[in-house]
Amino acid sequence: MVANDIKSNLEIDHARPMKVIVIGAGISGILAAIRFTQRIPNLGLVVYDKNPEVGGTWYENRYPGVACDVPSHVYQASFEPNPNWSQFYSSGNEILQYWKGIVEKYDVRKYMKLNHKIVEARFDDSQSKWHVAVENCSSGEVIHDTCDVLYACIGALNDWKWPDISGLSSFKGKLLHSASWDESWNPEGLSVAVIGSGSSAIQIVPAIQPKTSRIDNYVRGQTWIAPPWAATEVRKHTATGSNFKFTAEELEDFRSNPDSLLAYRKRLETEVQSMTKHLFRGQLAEKAASDFKQHMTKLLEKKPEILNKILPSFSPGCRRITPGPGYLEALTEDNVSFISDNISKITEDGIVTADGTLRKVDAIICATGFDTSFSKRFPIYGSGGLDLGERWKNYPDTYLSLSTHGAPNLFFAHGPSSGIGVGSLTIVLERTCDYVCSVIAKMQKDRIATIQPKKAACDSFRRYCDEFFKKTVFSLPCRSWYKRGTEDGPVTALWPGSSLHFVKVLEKPRFEDYDYIYVGGDDMSWIGNGLTMAESDSSVDMTAYLNPENIDYPRSPSQV
Ligand SMILES: Cc1cc2nc3c(=O)[nH]c(=O)nc-3n(C[C@H](O)[C@H](O)[C@H](O)COP(=O)(O)OP(=O)(O)OC[C@H]3O[C@@H](n4cnc5c(N)ncnc54)[C@H](O)[C@@H]3O)c2cc1C
Ligand SMILES: NC(=O)c1ccc[n+]([C@@H]2O[C@H](COP(=O)([O-])OP(=O)(O)OC[C@H]3O[C@@H](n4cnc5c(N)ncnc54)[C@H](OP(=O)(O)O)[C@@H]3O)[C@@H](O)[C@H]2O)c1
Ligand SMILES: *[C@@H]1O[C@H](CO)[C@@H](O)[C@H](O)[C@H]1NC(C)=O
Ligand SMILES: *[C@@H]1O[C@H](CO)[C@@H](O)[C@H](O)[C@H]1NC(C)=O
Ligand SMILES: *[C@@H]1O[C@H](CO)[C@@H](O)[C@H](O)[C@H]1NC(C)=O
Ligand SMILES: *[C@@H]1O[C@H](CO)[C@@H](O)[C@H](O)[C@H]1NC(C)=O
């Protein structure tokens, strides 16, 4: 049974009311608020976010040195080119201000309920609606809301976690996590342990090193430290010694000359988008390994012993490629120790390694990453009470990262299998939003009560992923969040293809891969009552089809 909320005597183009709840006001949620309200008539929209401010990743990660590691001009909205990026890799705060500016410019803050955390989502089959329980983070009060479509923009890297090290909570000094920073903390003159060598750690170490008295960097595994992305362009900047800052002349050119701004962006974006070929096993991957090794050897000349410990046996890209300007340089400073012995425990005043050595510190920074399993965020119950977290315990199966069988009317932005190993993520986030927008438009127009991918479509996508990743460096043995923190598990976080490939896939939904239930159980309800809105509402143009913008003019013989 589905609710019969559409009367059969409606016009074919009568826009059925759609209520959409978006979870998350990071980049994906902001894009959703802009596009859904632009394109879906008769829409009720609420965007909930647990944080007091929009921005997601860029609101939460405020550790010293936080910045994008793809060029700023590649990490922005296609429709909002910013001529004002102050440097080649923008700081986290500059990125946050940019997205806050977009929220104001398109006036979408009014749809957002910040400080509100979704604590449960449950699909009601009899109503074809999602019911969400939302906690007001200031009062603790739980409110309830319902919607036709739930769009989870909850981020792939949003669930930060403390490392599983015994004694961590007994530490009496300052304990920090990269994704939950205390900005009032000052490292000046302190001895500091930094645990990890992922993208966060390699930004933190060089940023605080000049202020601290000593840093112990605990690195249990191996990792590639890459030369910067878009190497050709960045070399120009390093060559000018401008600390990656754009010069006044460059900024003036970007501001006064949109063509030049676009040309610059296209040049960078082309470099970033053309790297996927290095991620297939084979000669190019080997070439990348030898280039990276050369880069690392040179920067570690002063302390060559670190090279032997840090140099991986797997190919670059198996873990996320991490260009870390300044990291290896910082490791070679006299007051920085690179510690590759396993940590056995943490005491009240420091860290003890497997050989029994205690190194006392004033502060411990855990740059130890996120839970990327997608199964422990908040309970999601799909059709018939299906516990999605439970089903995703071993593998988060989806259809193209967007949706999954058993959870109708639920879509994900940047969900499982959506990460981009190299290449632009922002265009993928935009196209994902466009895709979901066309699904909502179809549900509205075709009077669809529920839509979900066919089970066979999810199974086929998983088979495709398994086959695809076998050919790539991602499935080599290395511990990575791409594999939910395992060394040899299936690749669950990445899109099986390039960024450009993902964009093509998202361009046009293959609606034949979905199952539908129509409103009122009537598969002809979409056709309405034989009339159009223009015939009952005099404000609608009856002959819009004659307007030049709606006419596809054929070429005349002289133009052929
Ligand atoms: C430190 C760091 C640096 C990065 N740098 C780059 C980079 O250089 N280039 C790149 O391409 N990518 C980078 N990334 C990846 C980055 O996460 C994405 O590029 C992008 O910001 C994802 O946006 P999003 O909106 O999809 O997710 P997020 O930014 O993660 O936003 C998710 C939002 O959902 C909210 N939310 C989650 N659960 C709930 C809930 N239960 N209830 C209410 N709200 C909820 C969160 O509060 C958050 O605001 C980086 C990630 C990190 C952590
Ligand atoms: N644009 C950027 O510059 C930027 C910056 C930060 C983050 N990011 C994004 O966020 C992702 C996550 O980055 P991240 O650095 O926060 O996390 P991460 O890549 O998962 O790295 C976590 C690090 O902590 C170590 N670690 C975890 N648990 C540990 C334990 N119990 N004991 C010792 N070491 C432990 C890991 O060691 P092992 O290697 O041995 O597992 C690893 O070095 C990145 O891959 C990237 O996509 C991007
Ligand atoms: C860029 O900065 C200039 C000068 O500060 C300002 O006038 C302009 O509005 C800014 N442009 C954008 C798109 O933010
Ligand atoms: C959430 O709680 C705060 C503090 O009690 C209150 O001021 C606010 O109005 C609440 N928000 C909503 C939407 O109820
Ligand atoms: C640690 O080294 C850096 C230079 O690399 C220096 O600026 C800093 O003062 C040093 N700290 C101490 C206490 O010597
Ligand atoms: C660290 O511990 C892991 C397993 O916990 C082990 O495989 C590895 O050999 C240890 N490394 C060192 C240097 O002791």
TrEMBL record:
Listed Gene3D superfamilies? FAD/NAD(P)-binding domain
- Asked whether the UniProt record includes Transmembrane helix among its keywords, one would answer yes
Q: Which cofactor does it need?
A: FAD
Transmembrane segments in this chain: where?
A: 20-37
Q: Which UniProt keywords apply?
A: FAD, Flavoprotein, Membrane, Transmembrane, Transmembrane helix
Instruction: Cite the InterPro entries for this sequence.
Output: FAD-bind_Monooxygenase_sf, FAD/NAD-bd_sf
The keyword Transmembrane appears for this protein:
yes
Q: What SUPFAM superfamilies would the database entry show?
A: FAD/NAD(P)-binding domain
Family indicated by similarity = Belongs to the FAD-binding monooxygenase family.
Q: What is this protein called?
A: Uncharacterized protein
What species is given as this protein's source?
Penicillium argentinense
